[in-house]
Write a structure and sequence with these properties.
binds magnesium ion; 5-stranded parallel beta sheet; 6 helices; 15% strand; 162 residues; single chain; alpha/beta
Amino acid sequence: MTDDKINILIVDDEEQFLNSIKKRLEVRDFNVFAVDRGEKAIEAARNNAIDIALVDLKMPGMRGEETLKILKKEHQWMEVVILTGHGSVDSAVECVQDGAHKYLQKPCELDTLLEVLKDAYEKKVMNKQKLEKEKMDELMKFAQGNSPLEILRKLKEIDKGK
Ligand SMILES: [Mg+2]
């Protein structure tokens, strides 16, 4: 895994669709992890710093709805985009209420996918920056009237991401 590429995780049980998206994103310089089961997606996300996950709704085993919930719970900054086939738009809408960034209907145009990936990654970066700014503001306030040791402890907390 390289640090300068955006890491995308795709989980879909349709092998052709999975491989086609993987190839199309890889030639555009994304780092792609492609798996065919929700359980494997959870595992892949635990072992790799995924920026955005593309999650199919209908899969054998763990369904997309459940996969989404676990990914969002375990990875604060990860954005999840739901992939949905015909007839499951209702659950895709529910997924957005459960924290998915957006849903895309399959098959989707590459331009549309890239646009959605751009928005999702922008959201991730902005959320992270916003929290960091809030923490720094908090630190500036804390620094007034506290000892160097107390400030060091506070800095350590921020560094550890508490
Ligand atoms: Mg499927």
